[in-house]
Amino acid sequence: MRIKMSPLSKLYVAFIMLLLYAPIVVMIFFSFNDSASTSVITGFSLRWYKSLLNDQATITALRNTLILAVSSSLIATVMGTTAAVGINAFRNKHIKKVTMGVTNIPMMNPEIVTGISMMLLFIICANMVGFTDALGFGTMLIAHVTFNLPYVILSVLPKLRQLDRFLPEAAMDLGCTPLQAFFKVILPSISTGIFSGLMMSFTLSLDDFVISYFTQGPSFETLPIRIFSMTKKRVTPDMYALSTIIFVVILFLLIMLNVSQVRGEKKMHNKLDKGAKR
User: Fold this and answer.
1) How buried is 77 (Cβ within 10 angstroms: 0-12 exposed, 13-18 middle, 19+ buried)?
2) How confident is the model at residue 77 (pLDDT cuts 50, 70, 90)?
3) CB-side exposure of 239: number of CA atoms within 13 Å?
4) 3-class SS at 111?
5) Which of 140, 117, 134 lies closest to 220 in space, CA to CA?
6) Residues forming beta bridges with residue 44, ordered by sequence position
7) pLDDT tens digits, 95-121
8) Is the distance from CB of 257 to CB of 201 less than 8 angstroms?
9) For FRET with 71, which of 65, 215, 223, 235 sits at 20 to 30 Å CA-CA?
10) Helix (H, G, I), strand (E, B) or coil at 182
11) What does the pLDDT look like over 156-202, one tens digit per residue?
12) Which tens digit of pLDDT belongs to each residue from 205-249?
């Protein structure tokens, strides 16, 4: 059943979309401006994209960001998937509720509180073992994995709840070990949830500033931190070009995420239809 929208409702939705995407459109538009002006268009040019390639500090920060995002998202996906399987296997409802409540704390907690608390924890632990350089890539990796974990768990758990709980038992009756049943039956069935959690972790890690700012070391700078340091003077137009590239990449990943979810739902419906016919 389709709900018809009134002209006023359509106008309101268009206004909201304009507020959301007008700044991004302006940024993309001025990334192709031939001059450094933010008010006058002097011509179409790829000048700032070429300038971006020659900015070694920015390229290094981008590389660090990608390394951190890929590493943290992969580790969080593996840990989050195994944690979701364990939580789903709980039979005691009270233990399951408490576990889910603890899992959701990093999502509900303000980022500045998480960042400061983790910074203090890392410094205290480093002083206890006698390390002088407490913060660096390792601490940022642990911090990113920590705030990515709940998103992976919440992406995988619904897929596990949709799964027929007798499928693993059927696989083991046919000769599979519990480990083989997990990899051959459970894992393919929840793959769309795992992929969703992986993409969400990657985008969150790529975008994070507050927690990274408090847990970074002097030798490891990410892109959000570099852009923030540039705002103290003046953001050059090559940052518009870089932001445009990041926006296009994230948009592509989100499209892939939605496509995978739609395909997963279609596969699930097809399986249910085949089961109903049988």
Assistant:
1) buried
2) very high
3) 15
4) helix
5) 140
6) 33
7) 888 888 888 887 888 888 888 998 888
8) no
9) 235
10) helix
11) 988 888 877 777 778 777 777 778 888 888 888 888 888 888 988 98
12) 888 888 888 888 888 888 888 888 877 667 677 788 888 888 888
Query: Tokens for 98?
Result: 């408490």
| Cα(199)–Cα(83) distance, integer angstroms | 18
Q: Which two structure tokens, joined as six digits, stand for 113?
A: 């509180």
Task: State the Cα–Cα distance between residues 246 and 52, nearest whole angstrom.
Answer: 13
What residues have CB less than 8 Å from 208, skipping those under 6 apart? 111, 144, 147, 224
Angle in degrees, CA 120, 122, 125, rounded to 5: 105
Query: Percent of the chain having pLDDT more than 90?
Result: 9
Residue 3, class by beta-carbon neighbours within 10 Å (0-12 exposed, 13-18 middle, 19+ buried)? exposed
So what's the pLDDT on residue 75? 95
- Position 79 scores a pLDDT of 93
Sorted by sequence, the CB contacts under 8 Å of residue 112 that are 6+ apart come out as 210, 214
Helix (H/G/I), strand (E/B), else coil: 133: coil
Distance CA 199, CA 76 (A): 11
Show the DSSP H helices in the chain as ranges: 7-31, 47-54, 56-88, 93-108, 111-129, 137-162, 167-173, 178-181, 187-189, 191-207, 210-215, 223-230, 238-277
